Amino acid sequence: TTLLTAPPECLGVEGRLAHKLFRDLFANYTSALRPVADTDQALNVTLEVTLSQIIDMDERNQVLTLYLWIRQEWTDAYLQWDPDAYGGLDVIRIPSSLVWRPDIVLYNKADAQPRASASTNVVLRHDGAVRWDAPAITRSSCRVDVSAFPFDAQRCGLTFGSWTHGGHQLDVRPRGATASLADFVENVEWRVLGMPARRRVLTYGCCSEPYPDVTFTLLLRRRAAAYVCNLLLPCVLISLLAPLAFHLPADSGEKVSLGVTVLLALTVFQLLLAESMPPAESVPLIGKYYMATMTMVTFSTALTILIMNLHYCGPSARPVPAWARALLLGYLARGLCVRERGEPCGWSRSHESPPDPQPSEAGTGPPAGPCHEPQCLCHQEALLHHVATIASTFRSHRAAQRRHEDWKRLARVMDRFFLGIFFSMALVMSLLVLVQAL
To answer: Are the beta carbons of 391 and 359 closer than 8 angstroms?
Structure first.
């Protein structure tokens, strides 16, 4: 601009030629009209995009912010000259505001306010070829699918086209099959898989003529390492810790406390996840894992409470049913290796409780046989009655203790059974989620 506006006497030979060329070209030039010799002829515009940086991906508002270099090339029929007439000068650079520029805009932009065009120069060749390179920060709408978060891949399209010129007046075509990624700055959260370009010709309801556009589809895959370390692995460890409540001794008093603590920890992680995820109909994969784990912990805590009730059945409890004695205390106890202290694994006591000995009818009276001594023990009927009562009470107490031990043994069998089930469930769910990271 300084070269073109300086006085001719202050310029060198090349400067005077450029100044003369500028005056000759723009003497009768207007940037308001389409620069074609035939108004029925379409002007071809070549569009090239270079991705420089991913500034932000706002999943909650579904807005993608990019830093792009946009290059547009076209031929201006009114800006041509003979280089020999100007000392071999075949290229000049002039402000872009002086020449006609295509009104190519981003169709799916998400800006609240329109951005001003970058005030960069255009490169003008002697044959009328115009090249306009301009940097741009674009904010485009992008439909974000978080159903596989944090192992998701996104496809965000950027559609460029003329706002007022139809296909009969301005034809937009991409340069090459993909956008250039040569100067791309790697992003810490997203990995770029490619950015293919595709040309479309659409007819809108407002107008009868077709409108061509070029869509650059940015293929992204999330880098899940940070989410695996901060959100997924703690949940996996907590979910593997929850079934161990079945392995705690009932007398420790911590079985239910462990389940409640694990449930509270999962709730905290669930709240942290909900803050970073957009509200959507599809639940993310990690969200499904959290809900499944919380459901498992809830059921395990409820079953722990029921098993604690079985363990603390008092002496007044009814005997263990016959089917439970045969199935749980028999086959299942041997299969799960639940044994009393000192018993070998795979051995269990008889399925049936030994019958309670009943006091004999003769126990209330003197024993049969001759006894003629007045001080003989057999004549002390009151003493014999008390001894029989004590023996009966002791036998009843022993029977109640055996019933109590049976219920405690049944509680241990159920603890071992549910420990295997819930630990297997937690391990399978964790592996299914972690395998997505491979």
So the answer is: yes
φ, ψ dihedrals at 221, nearest 5°: -135, 130
Tell me: the pLDDT tens digits for 145-173?
A: 888 888 889 999 999 999 989 888 999 99
Place of tokens 């520029």: 101
Handedness of CA 378, 382, 385, 390 (dihedral sign): negative
| Strand order across the 43-58 sheet | 91-95, 121-125, 129-141, 63-75, 43-58, 170-174
Q: State mean pLDDT over 190-217.
A: 90
345 vs 333: CA distance, rounded Å: 9
- Partners of 141 in the beta sheet? 63
Q: Taking the model in full, what pTM does it have?
A: 0.72
The bridge status of strand 211-222 relative to strand 190-194 is antiparallel
Tokens 């029977």 belong to residue? 399
Report d(CA 55, CA 41) in Å as an integer: 40
Residue type, 123: V
CB 404 within 8 A of CB 317: yes
Q: What is the pLDDT of residues 86-141, one digit of tens each?
A: 988 999 999 999 999 999 999 999 876 666 556 789 999 999 999 999 999 999 99
Q: What are the pLDDT digits (tens) for 43-96?
A: 999 999 999 999 999 888 889 999 999 999 999 999 999 999 998 899 999 999
Does residue 150 have a cis peptide bond before it, meaning omega lies within 30 degrees of 0? yes
Token reading at 345 = 């694994």
Q: Provide DSSP, 159-223.
A: EEEESS--TTTEEEEESSSB-B-TTPPPPSSEEEEE-BEEEEEE--TT-SS-EEEEEEEEEEEE-
